[in-house]
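Input chain follows. Return structure tokens only.
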Amino acid sequence: MSAPLLEARGVTKTFPGVVALKGVNFDVRAGEIHALCGENGAGKSTLIKLLSGVHPFGSYEGELLVDGAPARFLSVADAQTAGIAAIAQELALIPALSVAENVRLGDWPTKSGLVDWAETRRDAREWLTRLGLDADIDTPVEKLSAGERQLVEIAKALRRRARVLILDEPTAALAEAEAVRLMDLTRSLRKDGIGIIYISHRLEEVFALADRVTVLRDGGTVSTRSASQADRGAVIRDMVGREIADLFPRRAPKLGEVRLRARGLSARGTGGLRELSDISFEVRAGEVLGIGGLMGAGRSELLLHLFGAWGERVSGTLELDGRALEPESPAQALAAGLALVAEDRRRQGLVLDHSVGFNLSLSTLDRLARGGLIDAAAEAELNERDREELRIKTPSLDARVGGLSGGNQQKVLVGRARRSAPEVLLLDEPTRGVDVGAKVEIYELINRMTERGLAVVLVSSELPELLGMSDRILMLRGGRAAGEFTRAEATQEKLIAAALGHEGGA
């Protein structure tokens, strides 16, 4: 058997006070998809940075090998020269530059001492055609969809003769159709002999794609299995270090009065580009109402409209506890008894450069004020209580929230929303980009809140999550209601049919 394209042998990486990797062994072969799994903080990001030259030779113990020969990457450029390319969640594209310019960025063809723009455009078009992307190569990449931008990044890497592609959560921000296209492309690249390291929290993707699965926990290698011999339960157990009998903790809902009711709700966005049409639903105290649908179906717009943050009401009514609800701003929605945890926690939810404590307190600063000043002792007491109840893993409440894992950032947002004592909590993709262990903790937190009488509206693009957490599920399609199902009625097939508009869905 030929040597792996890329191999890490016994690598150990330390930071001040932290051992990030402990004797890790990992390799990827030509024409193989090797999935790398683990909770946030398990060491995946550190290993990726080591393999791609971000952490240079000399900053770690152990060795890297390329084609069986020792490799000493002193920079990302060294790794790229060796054929290693990492496609991070934050893509390395320049938004204002065109597609063609980004594909050839840093490697311009020249003619008579000047950039040969005709060759730049021809070459970019050829690579994008290979990947099945029919985009205008003169378009700025900022105007492309998330999936199209990702394909541009992959084209750029393959143009530089990448033999190993490291894909870090590649479908996290993609619409369903784009995610399917990317997975098909990944399989195609495997057939071309590319070695692919695939990092994802979505285990259904891992088992659909991978040839082998390696699990890291606390910086060490727990297991490496053939995907055909692995099962979901074993991988989850290896990731969290314990048995999780039920990913979605069961509860016996005790439903109370109707908290939030929508009747014939219609709204339009700026310029009329997106619309909600004739949507009716209700959610009771102690109930979780799931909202599903394809990307662009209007799920996030519905939650933002309820929260006074999107769209102009055209017709229909909203009621909260039997009283008319017409919030014109998030502040009015909060005052009325609604709270929102938005989809993009890093851009719409957290003040990343401020502390954990500061972010927890944002929704209750007015209540903590005494004579125009914040009661620091009361704030510290509340923050410590939330840290313990929510199991927020942080060195201290003064630590920068941007440095926490995705799951712990999400707990901070849920805790802040809970502090405003809402009647209804709106959750938009609450576990996106969150590892399995943190997902379970967030599900348990949702259950505890509903047991205390809170009504929850949960938007999720993950059908197992909708089925596992919801008491009822409302599916949207094109801004309209496409079907409503009780927990007993709902199946993945029915939800998909409703989302697509097939017979039997709506």
